[in-house]
Design brief:
The protein is of the alpha/beta class. The chain is about 35% helix and about 20% strand.
Length: about 400
């Protein structure tokens, strides 16, 4: 489960028992949720009454639809978003949610599915893959009274918002853990498509790796697919055959982790905790808590405070996280990772401090001067590899 939590809703408090490292308890109050809203313009999820006390509190009559690029059983990207959908049903018992899985990004399929939900009167439609962007834009123009959210895109309108998260933060920490499990300094990365979102994650992981081992390298193999278990596993096997001791990934299945386990090596998964599928290999996984964001968005739309926005939340907001660190990781390395994680959660670090100069590209040329932090716009348009990444960036 993406959240890996036990949740109870009582008044304006969501109590969460976190199992990431042991059992560390914390409370998300209305004030904490306001922080979690971040760029939502103050539309925090903070319930004013126990769900069920009023139509707004319960979500009664409100309908939300989700489009997924893969099957909900992928234990990856679509699974993570579907856990967020289920979280909405827990927080707002009267809400109605629906989803369509394995929707193609190309062709007319996405636009047809989105339009169908809009015609059926859904209040909010969430398209959860980059390739759904133009289809979402087209339908949003035709249904101005419906709210739309596109995940990972950059086009907005009066009734169309975008959302993504700083998954680079846990990727950075996972890179430090991975380096500790790769004494040779050779790591591999199975990557989907050469878009800024993926490139940024590879770079953050590599910077984490080289914080521990400045001479380490990360070899990248592209699959040009989000979901293809066989191709993902084959890519990982090629990296392992080349000497990689740890396999990281930006893919939607546990194929790369299973390949690592079969080879007696280690891996860093993605999207959800993949350890159950490769328990001897998975060090940890950068994961998503999409329900935090979805609950905030639904609350804002229901109470009339929602405005079009471009949301980019991080560890401090509760949107991104690390799954439990494996017991086979040395205690010292685990403690260091926990300390780093707590620093991000407290807001002592941000994605901008990860990408602060001096930074060189893979050719050794300076890209970011010492003491200069990359801007959000630069990060969202990143098309170059940091020093230590091996592999080509296709046009």
């Amino acid at each position: 489960m993406v959240f890996s939590v036990e949740e109870t809703v009582s008044g304006n408090v969501v109590q969460v028992m976190d199992r990431r490292i042991g059992r560390r308890a914390f409370t998300m109050s209305a004030a904490a949720a306001a922080v979690a809203a971040g760029m939502l313009g103050g539309n925090a999820f903070a319930q004013d009454a126990t769900p069920g006390a009023s139509p707004i509190a319960s979500g009664e009559g409100f309908k939300v639809a989700f489009l997924y690029v893969g099957p909900v059983g992928d234990l990856g990207w679509s699974y993570a978003h579907d856990e967020g959908r289920k979280y909405l049903e827990q927080v707002f018992p009267g809400i109605e949610t629906s989803y369509s899985e394995s929707v193609p990004e190309t062709g007319a399929d996405a636009e047809r599915v989105i339009r169908d939900y809009a015609q059926k009167g859904y209040n909010l439609i969430v398209a959860t893959s980059f390739g759904f962007m133009d289809a979402t834009v087209n339908v949003a123009k035709q249904f101005p009274d419906t709210q739309f959210i596109h995940i990972s895109g950059y086009k907005t309108a009066e009734n169309l918002s975008t959302a993504f998260g700083k998954i680079e933060e846990p990727r950075y920490v996972s890179g430090q853990l991975a380096a500790a499990m790769a004494p040779s300094g050779k790591l591999g990365y199975v990557a989907a498509f050469p878009i800024p979102e993926v490139i940024r994650g590879i770079n953050a992981f590599t910077l984490g790796v080289r914080k521990i081992n400045p001479e380490a390298t990360v070899q990248v193999v592209w699959t040009n697919t989000w979901y293809d278990p066989q191709k993902e596993r084959q890519a990982a096997e090629a990296l392992l055959d080349g000497g990689a001791e740890v396999i990281a990934q930006h893919q939607d299945t546990a194929g790369p982790q299973q390949a690592a386990e079969a080879a007696g090596k280690y891996g860093v998964g993605y999207n959800a905790d993949m350890a159950p599928l490769a328990p001897k290999a998975v060090i940890t996984c950068p994961i998503w808590h999409w329900g935090v964001y979805y609950a905030s968005a639904v609350k804002g739309i229901m109470d009339g405070t929602w405005q079009s926005n471009a949301y980019w939340g991080g560890w401090q907001d509760g949107l991104v996280d690390l799954s439990p660190i494996a017991d086979f990781v040395p205690a010292t390395e685990k403690d260091n990772a926990v300390a780093e994680e707590q620093s991000f959660e407290a807001g002592d670090q941000t994605i901008f401090t990860i990408f602060t100069g001096p930074l060189k590209d893979q050719k050794g040329e300076e890209k970011v001067a010492e003491g200069t932090a990359m801007t959000g716009e630069e990060l969202l348009a990143m098309t170059w590899f940091v020093e230590g990444v091996e592999g080509e960036l296709p046009s």
